[in-house]
Protein backbone atom coordinates (compact mmCIF):
# COMPACT_ATOMS: atom_id res chain seq x y z
CA UNK A 1 0.00 0.00 0.00
CA UNK A 2 1.37 3.42 -0.99
CA UNK A 3 1.77 6.25 1.50
CA UNK A 4 -0.99 8.15 -0.33
CA UNK A 5 -3.42 5.27 0.20
CA UNK A 6 -2.36 4.93 3.85
CA UNK A 7 -3.02 8.60 4.64
CA UNK A 8 -6.37 8.60 2.81
CA UNK A 9 -7.41 5.41 4.62
CA UNK A 10 -6.52 6.95 7.99
CA UNK A 11 -8.54 10.08 7.23
CA UNK A 12 -11.42 7.99 5.88
CA UNK A 13 -11.49 5.97 9.12
CA UNK A 14 -11.72 9.18 11.15
CA UNK A 15 -14.44 10.60 8.89
CA UNK A 16 -16.52 7.44 9.26
CA UNK A 17 -16.01 7.00 13.02
CA UNK A 18 -16.19 10.35 14.86
CA UNK A 19 -16.75 8.67 18.23
CA UNK A 20 -13.35 6.97 18.10
CA UNK A 21 -11.76 10.29 17.12
CA UNK A 22 -13.35 11.89 20.20
CA UNK A 23 -12.16 9.06 22.45
CA UNK A 24 -8.61 9.29 21.09
CA UNK A 25 -8.57 13.05 21.65
CA UNK A 26 -9.73 12.60 25.25
CA UNK A 27 -7.02 10.00 25.90
CA UNK A 28 -4.36 12.36 24.54
CA UNK A 29 -5.51 15.60 26.17
CA UNK A 30 -7.84 14.68 29.01
CA UNK A 31 -10.44 17.02 27.53
CA UNK A 32 -13.68 16.31 25.74
CA UNK A 33 -15.52 17.53 22.67
CA UNK A 34 -18.06 20.22 21.86
CA UNK A 35 -20.58 19.53 19.11
CA UNK A 36 -20.96 22.08 16.33
CA UNK A 37 -24.22 22.10 14.41
CA UNK A 38 -24.32 23.13 10.74
CA UNK A 39 -23.50 25.28 9.05
CA UNK A 40 -21.01 27.90 10.30
CA UNK A 41 -19.76 28.56 13.82
CA UNK A 42 -16.72 30.07 15.57
CA UNK A 43 -14.96 26.75 16.16
CA UNK A 44 -11.86 28.71 17.10
CA UNK A 45 -13.45 29.54 20.48
CA UNK A 46 -13.78 25.83 21.28
CA UNK A 47 -10.26 25.13 20.04
CA UNK A 48 -8.92 27.97 22.19
CA UNK A 49 -10.54 26.32 25.22
CA UNK A 50 -8.53 23.17 24.52
CA UNK A 51 -11.57 21.11 23.56
CA UNK A 52 -12.28 19.33 20.27
CA UNK A 53 -14.92 20.89 17.99
CA UNK A 54 -16.92 18.07 16.40
CA UNK A 55 -19.18 18.64 13.41
CA UNK A 56 -22.73 17.31 13.70
CA UNK A 57 -24.01 16.63 10.18
CA UNK A 58 -26.41 13.77 10.74
CA UNK A 59 -26.01 10.51 8.87
CA UNK A 60 -27.80 7.79 6.95
CA UNK A 61 -30.54 6.97 9.40
CA UNK A 62 -34.07 5.58 9.46
CA UNK A 63 -36.32 8.16 11.12
CA UNK A 64 -38.97 7.28 13.70
CA UNK A 65 -38.65 9.08 17.06
CA UNK A 66 -37.75 12.41 15.42
CA UNK A 67 -41.18 12.55 13.76
CA UNK A 68 -42.63 13.47 17.16
CA UNK A 69 -40.61 16.69 17.28
CA UNK A 70 -40.03 17.74 13.67
CA UNK A 71 -42.44 18.03 10.74
CA UNK A 72 -41.90 15.65 7.81
CA UNK A 73 -40.76 18.57 5.65
CA UNK A 74 -37.72 19.28 7.86
CA UNK A 75 -34.48 18.48 6.01
CA UNK A 76 -32.94 15.07 6.56
CA UNK A 77 -29.86 16.48 8.32
CA UNK A 78 -32.03 17.85 11.10
CA UNK A 79 -34.21 14.72 11.12
CA UNK A 80 -31.23 12.39 11.52
CA UNK A 81 -29.57 14.64 14.12
CA UNK A 82 -32.80 14.68 16.14
CA UNK A 83 -33.13 10.91 15.82
CA UNK A 84 -29.56 10.27 16.95
CA UNK A 85 -29.66 12.69 19.86
CA UNK A 86 -32.90 11.07 21.08
CA UNK A 87 -30.93 7.81 21.07
CA UNK A 88 -28.21 9.46 23.18
CA UNK A 89 -25.59 9.63 20.44
CA UNK A 90 -24.43 13.10 21.47
CA UNK A 91 -24.68 12.79 25.25
CA UNK A 92 -20.88 12.51 25.61
CA UNK A 93 -20.43 16.03 24.26
CA UNK A 94 -19.55 18.73 26.79
CA UNK A 95 -21.85 21.17 24.96
CA UNK A 96 -23.50 21.73 21.58
CA UNK A 97 -23.08 25.00 19.66
CA UNK A 98 -25.96 26.10 17.42
CA UNK A 99 -26.07 28.80 14.80
CA UNK A 100 -29.63 29.31 13.56
CA UNK A 101 -29.62 30.59 9.95
CA UNK A 102 -32.74 28.63 8.95
CA UNK A 103 -36.14 27.92 10.49
CA UNK A 104 -35.43 24.24 11.07
CA UNK A 105 -32.22 24.95 12.98
CA UNK A 106 -34.11 27.45 15.15
CA UNK A 107 -36.71 24.76 15.83
CA UNK A 108 -34.16 22.06 16.64
CA UNK A 109 -32.18 24.33 18.97
CA UNK A 110 -35.32 24.69 21.09
CA UNK A 111 -36.23 21.00 20.97
CA UNK A 112 -32.85 19.52 21.90
CA UNK A 113 -33.51 16.55 24.16
CA UNK A 114 -29.94 15.40 24.82
CA UNK A 115 -28.10 15.86 28.11
CA UNK A 116 -25.47 18.21 26.65
CA UNK A 117 -26.11 21.92 27.31
CA UNK A 118 -26.95 23.97 24.22
CA UNK A 119 -25.40 27.32 23.27
CA UNK A 120 -27.35 29.24 20.63
CA UNK A 121 -26.18 32.32 18.74
CA UNK A 122 -27.41 34.24 15.71
CA UNK A 123 -25.55 35.27 12.57
CA UNK A 124 -26.92 38.64 11.39
CA UNK A 125 -28.32 38.45 7.85
CA UNK A 126 -27.96 42.14 6.97
CA UNK A 127 -24.27 41.30 6.89
CA UNK A 128 -22.58 44.14 5.06
CA UNK A 129 -23.24 46.81 7.72
CA UNK A 130 -20.68 47.64 10.39
CA UNK A 131 -23.54 47.24 12.86
CA UNK A 132 -23.66 43.56 11.87
CA UNK A 133 -20.06 43.12 12.97
CA UNK A 134 -20.76 44.79 16.30
CA UNK A 135 -23.84 42.63 16.84
CA UNK A 136 -21.95 39.43 16.04
CA UNK A 137 -19.09 40.38 18.36
CA UNK A 138 -21.63 40.61 21.19
CA UNK A 139 -23.03 37.21 20.20
CA UNK A 140 -19.54 35.72 20.26
CA UNK A 141 -18.91 37.26 23.69
CA UNK A 142 -21.93 35.38 24.98
CA UNK A 143 -20.72 32.17 23.33
CA UNK A 144 -17.31 32.59 24.96
CA UNK A 145 -18.84 33.27 28.39
CA UNK A 146 -21.09 30.22 28.16
CA UNK A 147 -18.24 27.99 26.99
CA UNK A 148 -16.06 29.21 29.87
CA UNK A 149 -18.80 28.42 32.37
CA UNK A 150 -19.72 25.00 30.96
CA UNK A 151 -16.14 23.85 30.28
CA UNK A 152 -14.69 25.48 33.41
CA UNK A 153 -11.87 27.16 31.47
CA UNK A 154 -10.68 30.69 30.69
CA UNK A 155 -10.63 31.54 26.97
CA UNK A 156 -8.20 34.41 26.43
CA UNK A 157 -7.91 36.73 23.43
CA UNK A 158 -4.39 35.43 22.88
CA UNK A 159 -5.61 31.83 22.78
CA UNK A 160 -8.36 32.71 20.29
CA UNK A 161 -5.92 34.57 18.02
CA UNK A 162 -3.59 31.55 18.13
CA UNK A 163 -6.49 29.25 17.25
CA UNK A 164 -7.45 31.52 14.35
CA UNK A 165 -3.94 31.10 12.95
CA UNK A 166 -4.18 27.31 13.31
CA UNK A 167 -7.52 27.34 11.49
CA UNK A 168 -6.33 29.72 8.78
CA UNK A 169 -3.39 27.45 8.03
CA UNK A 170 -5.81 24.54 7.72
CA UNK A 171 -8.01 26.58 5.38
CA UNK A 172 -5.05 27.41 3.14
CA UNK A 173 -3.89 23.79 3.04
CA UNK A 174 -7.41 22.60 2.26
CA UNK A 175 -7.68 25.03 -0.65
CA UNK A 176 -4.37 23.66 -1.94
CA UNK A 177 -5.65 20.10 -1.53
CA UNK A 178 -8.84 20.92 -3.45
CA UNK A 179 -6.82 22.30 -6.35
CA UNK A 180 -4.54 19.26 -6.26
CA UNK A 181 -7.51 16.86 -6.33
CA UNK A 182 -8.63 18.57 -9.56
CA UNK A 183 -5.22 17.83 -11.10
CA UNK A 184 -5.11 14.20 -9.92
CA UNK A 185 -8.68 12.86 -10.31
CA UNK A 186 -7.34 9.38 -11.07
CA UNK A 187 -5.67 9.31 -7.65
CA UNK A 188 -8.22 11.26 -5.58
CA UNK A 189 -11.72 10.25 -6.62
CA UNK A 190 -14.94 11.79 -5.28
CA UNK A 191 -15.21 9.57 -2.18
CA UNK A 192 -11.55 9.99 -1.21
CA UNK A 193 -11.74 13.73 -1.73
CA UNK A 194 -14.81 13.93 0.48
CA UNK A 195 -13.21 11.82 3.22
CA UNK A 196 -10.12 14.04 3.42
CA UNK A 197 -12.31 17.12 3.76
CA UNK A 198 -14.84 15.59 6.15
CA UNK A 199 -12.15 14.34 8.53
CA UNK A 200 -11.36 17.94 9.47
CA UNK A 201 -14.66 18.08 11.40
CA UNK A 202 -13.41 15.42 13.83
CA UNK A 203 -9.70 16.20 14.26
CA UNK A 204 -7.63 18.79 16.04
CA UNK A 205 -6.93 21.12 13.13
CA UNK A 206 -3.12 21.19 13.33
CA UNK A 207 -3.04 17.38 13.15
CA UNK A 208 -5.38 17.38 10.18
CA UNK A 209 -3.25 20.05 8.51
CA UNK A 210 -0.08 18.00 8.99
CA UNK A 211 -1.66 14.88 7.47
CA UNK A 212 -3.06 16.76 4.48
CA UNK A 213 0.28 18.50 3.91
CA UNK A 214 1.98 15.11 3.77
CA UNK A 215 -0.72 13.82 1.44
CA UNK A 216 -0.22 16.79 -0.89
CA UNK A 217 3.55 16.22 -0.98
CA UNK A 218 3.14 12.50 -1.71
CA UNK A 219 0.63 13.08 -4.50
CA UNK A 220 2.75 15.81 -6.08
CA UNK A 221 5.67 13.37 -6.22
CA UNK A 222 3.72 11.21 -8.68
CA UNK A 223 3.10 12.14 -12.33
CA UNK A 224 -0.44 13.29 -13.14
CA UNK A 225 -2.23 10.93 -15.53
CA UNK A 226 -4.65 12.16 -18.16
CA UNK A 227 -8.27 11.90 -17.03
CA UNK A 228 -10.54 10.81 -19.86
CA UNK A 229 -13.89 11.28 -18.14
CA UNK A 230 -16.07 14.30 -17.41
CA UNK A 231 -15.18 17.00 -14.89
CA UNK A 232 -17.93 18.37 -12.65
CA UNK A 233 -18.40 20.84 -9.81
CA UNK A 234 -20.82 20.06 -6.97
CA UNK A 235 -22.93 22.75 -5.31
CA UNK A 236 -25.34 22.52 -2.38
CA UNK A 237 -25.27 21.66 1.32
CA UNK A 238 -23.64 18.24 1.10
CA UNK A 239 -23.14 15.26 -1.22
CA UNK A 240 -23.69 12.32 1.12
CA UNK A 241 -23.80 9.41 1.63
CA UNK A 242 -20.79 7.95 -0.17
CA UNK A 243 -23.07 5.88 -2.40
CA UNK A 244 -23.97 9.12 -4.19
CA UNK A 245 -20.33 9.98 -4.84
CA UNK A 246 -19.59 6.41 -5.95
CA UNK A 247 -22.17 6.83 -8.71
CA UNK A 248 -20.14 9.67 -10.20
CA UNK A 249 -16.92 7.66 -10.15
CA UNK A 250 -18.60 4.58 -11.64
CA UNK A 251 -19.89 6.70 -14.52
CA UNK A 252 -16.58 8.36 -15.32
CA UNK A 253 -17.08 11.68 -13.55
CA UNK A 254 -14.44 13.47 -11.51
CA UNK A 255 -15.35 16.04 -8.87
CA UNK A 256 -12.80 18.74 -9.62
CA UNK A 257 -14.22 21.35 -7.21
CA UNK A 258 -17.17 21.95 -4.96
CA UNK A 259 -19.38 24.66 -3.55
CA UNK A 260 -20.78 22.57 -0.71
CA UNK A 261 -21.55 23.94 2.74
CA UNK A 262 -20.07 20.83 4.33
CA UNK A 263 -16.91 21.07 2.24
CA UNK A 264 -15.15 24.00 0.55
CA UNK A 265 -17.42 26.77 1.86
CA UNK A 266 -15.91 25.99 5.27
CA UNK A 267 -12.45 27.06 4.08
CA UNK A 268 -13.23 29.31 1.12
CA UNK A 269 -11.70 32.37 2.80
CA UNK A 270 -9.47 32.98 5.82
CA UNK A 271 -10.43 34.84 8.95
CA UNK A 272 -9.02 38.35 8.28
CA UNK A 273 -6.03 39.85 10.08
CA UNK A 274 -6.47 41.98 13.19
CA UNK A 275 -5.90 42.16 16.93
CA UNK A 276 -9.42 41.74 18.34
CA UNK A 277 -10.16 38.02 17.83
CA UNK A 278 -13.94 38.27 18.14
CA UNK A 279 -14.05 41.12 15.63
CA UNK A 280 -11.89 39.06 13.26
CA UNK A 281 -14.34 36.16 13.50
CA UNK A 282 -17.25 38.54 12.90
CA UNK A 283 -15.53 40.01 9.81
CA UNK A 284 -15.20 36.52 8.35
CA UNK A 285 -19.00 36.29 8.27
CA UNK A 286 -19.24 39.69 6.58
CA UNK A 287 -16.65 38.84 3.92
CA UNK A 288 -17.96 35.33 3.22
CA UNK A 289 -20.18 35.04 0.13
CA UNK A 290 -21.91 32.55 -2.12
CA UNK A 291 -24.05 30.60 0.35
CA UNK A 292 -27.84 30.53 0.57
CA UNK A 293 -27.55 30.77 4.37
CA UNK A 294 -25.55 34.02 4.18
CA UNK A 295 -27.96 36.57 2.73
CA UNK A 296 -26.69 38.78 -0.08
CA UNK A 297 -29.20 40.68 -2.25
CA UNK A 298 -26.63 40.71 -5.08
CA UNK A 299 -26.81 36.90 -5.30
CA UNK A 300 -23.17 36.32 -6.35
CA UNK A 301 -23.35 32.53 -6.21
CA UNK A 302 -24.19 32.00 -9.88
CA UNK A 303 -21.25 34.08 -11.08
CA UNK A 304 -18.97 32.40 -8.55
CA UNK A 305 -19.96 28.99 -9.90
CA UNK A 306 -19.47 30.11 -13.50
CA UNK A 307 -16.00 31.39 -12.58
CA UNK A 308 -15.24 28.00 -11.01
CA UNK A 309 -16.32 26.23 -14.20
CA UNK A 310 -13.74 28.26 -16.13
CA UNK A 311 -11.00 27.89 -13.50
CA UNK A 312 -11.28 24.10 -13.25
CA UNK A 313 -12.20 23.49 -16.90
CA UNK A 314 -15.37 21.73 -15.75
CA UNK A 315 -17.89 20.20 -18.12
CA UNK A 316 -20.89 20.85 -15.88
CA UNK A 317 -22.26 21.76 -12.46
CA UNK A 318 -24.15 19.20 -10.38
CA UNK A 319 -26.71 20.68 -8.00
CA UNK A 320 -26.91 18.50 -4.88
CA UNK A 321 -30.20 19.80 -3.53
CA UNK A 322 -30.83 18.91 0.10
CA UNK A 323 -34.45 17.79 0.25
CA UNK A 324 -36.64 20.39 2.01
CA UNK A 325 -33.82 22.95 2.35
CA UNK A 326 -35.73 26.18 1.73
CA UNK A 327 -32.73 28.55 1.45
CA UNK A 328 -31.05 26.35 -1.16
CA UNK A 329 -34.29 25.89 -3.09
CA UNK A 330 -34.82 29.67 -3.21
CA UNK A 331 -31.35 30.16 -4.70
CA UNK A 332 -31.66 27.51 -7.40
CA UNK A 333 -33.87 29.32 -9.98
CA UNK A 334 -31.56 32.34 -9.87
CA UNK A 335 -28.29 30.60 -10.68
CA UNK A 336 -29.99 28.07 -12.99
CA UNK A 337 -31.16 30.96 -15.19
CA UNK A 338 -27.59 32.27 -15.25
CA UNK A 339 -26.31 28.83 -16.30
CA UNK A 340 -28.85 28.68 -19.12
CA UNK A 341 -27.87 32.12 -20.36
CA UNK A 342 -24.16 31.26 -20.25
CA UNK A 343 -24.62 27.83 -21.84
CA UNK A 344 -23.34 25.94 -18.78
CA UNK A 345 -24.76 22.44 -18.45
CA UNK A 346 -26.13 21.37 -15.07
CA UNK A 347 -27.71 18.36 -13.39
CA UNK A 348 -30.13 18.52 -10.45
CA UNK A 349 -30.14 15.64 -7.96
CA UNK A 350 -31.92 15.41 -4.61
CA UNK A 351 -29.99 14.55 -1.44
CA UNK A 352 -31.86 12.78 1.35
CA UNK A 353 -29.94 11.13 4.20
CA UNK A 354 -32.91 8.89 4.95
CA UNK A 355 -32.80 7.37 1.47
CA UNK A 356 -31.48 3.83 1.04
CA UNK A 357 -32.05 3.56 -2.72
CA UNK A 358 -30.01 5.59 -5.19
CA UNK A 359 -31.27 4.15 -8.46
CA UNK A 360 -32.94 7.40 -9.50
CA UNK A 361 -29.71 9.36 -9.00
CA UNK A 362 -27.80 6.64 -10.84
CA UNK A 363 -30.16 6.85 -13.82
CA UNK A 364 -29.95 10.65 -13.93
CA UNK A 365 -26.14 10.64 -13.74
CA UNK A 366 -25.88 7.98 -16.46
CA UNK A 367 -28.19 9.93 -18.74
CA UNK A 368 -26.35 13.17 -18.02
CA UNK A 369 -23.04 11.53 -18.89
CA UNK A 370 -24.44 10.38 -22.23
CA UNK A 371 -25.75 13.87 -22.91
CA UNK A 372 -22.36 15.43 -22.21
TrEMBL record:
Signal peptide: none annotated. It holds the Pfam family HGD-D. InterPro entries: FldB/FldC_alpha/beta (IPR010327). Belongs to the FldB/FldC dehydratase alpha/beta subunit family. Keywords: Iron, Iron-sulfur, Metal-binding. One of its GO terms (molecular function) is iron-sulfur cluster binding. This is Phenyllactate dehydratase. The keyword Iron-sulfur applies. Its cofactor is [4Fe-4S] cluster. It comes from the Bacteria. The keyword Translocase does not apply.
Amino acid sequence: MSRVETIINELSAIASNPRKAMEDFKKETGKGAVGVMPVYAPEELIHAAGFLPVGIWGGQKSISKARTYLPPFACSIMQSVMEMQLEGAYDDLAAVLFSVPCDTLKCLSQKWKGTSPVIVFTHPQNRKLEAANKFLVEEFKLVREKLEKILNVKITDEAINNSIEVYNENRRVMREFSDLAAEYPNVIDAVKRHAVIKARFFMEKSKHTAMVKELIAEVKATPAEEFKGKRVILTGIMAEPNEVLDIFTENGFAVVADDLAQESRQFRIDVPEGTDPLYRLAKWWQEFDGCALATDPKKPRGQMLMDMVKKYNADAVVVCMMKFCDPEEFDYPIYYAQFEEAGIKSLYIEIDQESTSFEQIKTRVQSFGEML
